Amino acid sequence: MQVLGIDGCRGGWIGIWHSPKQLKWFFSAALEDLIASPPPSHAFIDMPIGLSSTGPRLCDRAARQMLGRKFSSSVFPTPCRLALKGKDYPEANGLNRQQVGSGLSKQSYYLLPKIREVDNWLRNPSNSASLLREAHPEVAFHAIKGASLCFKKKTPEGFQERLDLLCQLDGRVAALTQNILAETRRKDIAADDILDACCLAVMPLSGRLQTLPAKPERDNKGLNMEICYYSARAFKSAGTVT
């Protein structure tokens, strides 16, 4: 299986290509170029796909429940589709409040350009919308470990904890991570962006495909509102293992 894990970063997008024979990385300012070079069999991206018009997404709620209080804040509130039309924060905030009854956090607002880019790619008839699916690195790390992590990802201990988990799945991740750190600038690609993209690329090695929720909703454009992860076990909505 050829898997592309994608994470947004300040400079654009970082992609990690994983297959039994290859583990390599790509960097591009445009998502379209990243996915096209070369096209994988599966692609997972840390960016919302499927935008609600009625209220909070069930997949976000389920992800927060799985992660627990310590890590639930890593799941940002997803903007509604109408908010994508906002030209600045006050307008986007007002549109979000108008449609779903709550305002838009600054963190979510700063993601709008990338959410628009993903949405435009998915809705382009020339692209295969089923290729690209949403995932969340912290959900994936939790599933790989089978329990809550100990440290936040931006701490040295958290970086090492996550790297160790990935190396248990594929030992090549350590050398690749060091190469990317050496060849790029942190103002373009943060260290945790590298691990997040690596996680989405290698997570299929940890079990079978699962989604939050188990039966995803669809938005008004027909896109699934789901968060994918891989595990030998399924997680209930409250975060327990079955």
Which percent band covers the strand fraction?
A: 15-25%
Strand tally = 7
CATH class label of the largest domain: Alpha Beta
Instruction: Calculate Rg over CA atoms.
Output: 17 Å
Which structural class fits the helix and strand makeup? alpha/beta
Helix and strand element order: EEEHEHHHHEHHHHEE
Question: Which CATH architecture of the largest domain?
Answer: 2-Layer Sandwich
Q: What's the overall geometry?
A: globular
Distance between the termini: 27 Å
Kindly report the CATH topology of the largest domain: Nucleotidyltransferase, domain 5
Give the quaternary arrangement of the chains: single chain
Q: What helical percentage do the residues reach?
A: 25-40%
Q: Structurally, how many domains make up the residues? A: 2
Largest sheet: 5 strands, mixed
What's the total helix number? 9
